[in-house]
Amino acid sequence: MPQPTTRRNQSPLWPAQLDHIQRNSDRPDALVAFYRDAAGMAAREVGPLLWLLEGPQRRILIGRGEKGEQPLNVFRVQSPPQLAALRSWLQGRGIALLPSPTPLFSEGFAVRDPDGRLAAFGLPNPAFAAPVAADTAALRLPARLQHVVVATTDLPRLTGFYEKELGFVASDHVYDGAPGEGPVTATFLRSDPEHHSFAAFRAPEVRPDHHCYETSCWNDIRDWADHLATLPVKLWWGPGRHGPGNNLFFMVEDPDGHKVEWSAELEVMSRDMAPRAWKHEERTLNYWGQSWMRS
């Protein structure tokens, strides 16, 4: 009997969610203190010069390394069969699989993207599954780690790898000319119905761009901004509303200058929705006002 054609040739990646990232620094103690206090996470050492920062639905690793490094993005799949299917899919495409580099997953593997960054896929290690006690005001504020964004000198090559080889789905492309015309300056990719779990901007260098915590509503955006004001941590950009994703947002900078975003109302899209086209202009990146124009 013929197999259905709607899903036969699609990667088993869907659905997957961003579980954690790793940030490195030549002064990791400053990053640990920032994410503990500003992002409402408890800190503990989980390896030599490696710290876990975790709160409800959010966690990141912080290690010692070069200032501003963000060498690892880790995506959580739903089950061992999905992980096995993804492994088989990637091996069938000739993609080299590397050992999982994160202690937070008990099963999994990694691949190296065209910019040299590791993308890991797997299942959480039960040893790190205990809930974090919400004993501070910031720990009680909702903020789910939701997406990570990078900058690249070769946008078509990088996003083509994530879309065509790994199985992410393009949500939006931003163009240097009119929508659909000229070089692409940004691409937003999803691995579940939320608008993007990974995105990339064209830039003159390969570097991290930002990572984001999704809240539940506009009032959460207010509460997080009020919390940051007590530290004090200034808002770097926003509040505003993005075009691609249609989400409310603001951003701050951590001690190494890495951008950290809080978001609400991120758009939801089905797997089969075609990508949209936008013009690279200020209004696309912020309906409400000034924008961070990467290129």
Rg from alpha-carbon coordinates: 19 Å
**Overall pLDDT metric:** 94
User: What is the CATH topology of the largest domain?
Assistant: 2,3-Dihydroxybiphenyl 1,2-Dioxygenase, domain 1
How much strand?
35-45%
Structural class: alpha/beta
Q: Count of helices? A: 6
CATH class division of the largest domain: Alpha Beta
Number of strands: 17
Describe the largest sheet: 9 strands, mixed
Strand order of the largest sheet: 14-15-16-13-9-12-11-10-17
- Approximate shape: globular
List segments where confidence is low: pLDDT < 50 over at least 5 consecutive residues: 1-8
SSE succession: EHEEEEHEEEHEHEEEEHEEEEH
Query: What's the helical proportion of residues?
Result: 10-25%
Cα(first) to Cα(last) distance is: 51 Å
Q: What is the CATH homologous superfamily assignment of the largest domain? A: 2,3-Dihydroxybiphenyl 1,2-Dioxygenase, domain 1
Per CATH, the architecture of the largest domain is: Roll
Count structural domains.
2
Note down, in words, how this protein is organized.
The protein has two domains: 17-125, 2,3-Dihydroxybiphenyl 1,2-Dioxygenase, domain 1; 142-285, Roll (2,3-Dihydroxybiphenyl 1,2-Dioxygenase, domain 1). Helices cover 19% and strands 36% of the residues. It is built from six helices and 17 strands. It is globular.
